[in-house]
Structures are given as structure tokens and as C-alpha cells.
Give the backbone structure.
Amino acid sequence: MFFSMLKKILIALVAILLIIQVFRPEKNISDINTYGIATKYQVPADVDQVLKSACNDCHSNLTSYPWYADIQPVAWWLDNHVQEGKSELNFSEFTSRPLAVQNHKFEEIAEMVEEKEMPLPSYTWLGLHSNAKLSDQQRRLIIDWAKAQMDTLKEQYPPDSLVLKRRG
Ligand code: HEC
């Protein structure tokens, strides 16, 4: 009795796993860079390299997918990170945002990296993206870079154009 029940449940689970393989989120792979961060800001090669290996999978329009991204339900889970990450910060569309938002994003980048909240811990978990595990030196590099961009903005624009207007 018990085993035949268990067998039915297992068969149902396998069937569900097979069926969901058909549904895959669209991949985040556009290389259009009209509003890319480097069209307005200095992005030195060493900074660019850290952003590419540790941030861009979730914060740009060009994700480099691992093999397991083709397996469901993993693909949904990854896609969720990409969509959520991009809605907060998208280096491929960075300069299309209002100036005050760009300025604020640099501040958040420095903060998130300083507090080791980014890259997302699940991303470097199990050594899946070992290149994204940042050394203290790499963290410093990104923090200093983000702050330098804020200084440059401050020199170029009137102060109130850099202040976020709170809605309502
Ligand atoms: C695996 C995906 C992933 C990677 C890699 C990643 N992020 Fe994020 N990031 C997210 C998600 C999801 C959010 C939104 C939810 C949250 O804040 O946790 C986010 C939010 C942010 C925010 C906005 C935080 C706020 O205050 O709301 C900043 C800034 C940020 N990330 C910077 C970075 C930087 C810089 C890197 C690289 C060093 C990086 N992220 C790497 C997924 C990622």
C-alpha cells in the first residue's frame, strides 16, 4: 500500500520535472550598448573586468549562462535574479536614467560592495563563480571607482540636479 503510493508520487514528480523543462524564460542576451555605462563614465580595464566577472550577469543585458541554466526549475530561479538585479541596476542602460539616479546608483554600488552584500552570496556559493569572489583589493577598487564617479558628477553639474526627488 505505502510503497505503491510512494511510487505514484515519485512518478508524478518525475513527470512534473520533465514537463517544466519545456517552459524556459527568455535569455538575457542583448549586446546593445547605446546607454552603456562606458558611454559617459570612465571605466578603466581593471574595473571593467571586475564588473564583468562579478556583476554583469545580473546587472546588464548580457548574462553569461552556465550549463545548468538550461535546467528547470533552476532557469526560473536564475532569471528571477537577473530581472530583479536589472530593475535595481543595469550597466547596459545606465545613462538612460536621470542624472540623480545615476549618482545614487554609484553610492549604492559603493555601499553594497563595502558591506559585502554584492555580488549576491548565492552567486559565489559552492565556488560556482569563483572569479566573482572579490578580494579586499578588488572591493576597494570598485568602491573607489564608484566614489570617483560621484566626485566627477559633482564637479560637472549643479548640486540639486544630483539630488533624488522623492515622489509624492
Ligand atoms: C546573482 C545575481 C547578482 C549579482 C552577480 C550581483 N547582483 Fe547586485 N543585485 C541583485 C539583486 C537580485 C538585487 C535586488 C535585490 C537586493 O537588493 O538584494 C541587487 C541589487 C543591487 C543594488 C541595489 C541595492 C539597493 O540598495 O537596492 C546594487 C547597487 C547592486 N546590486 C550592485 C551590485 C554590484 C556592484 C555587483 C558586483 C560586484 C552585483 N550587484 C552583483 C543580484 C546580483
Summary: The mean pLDDT is 95.
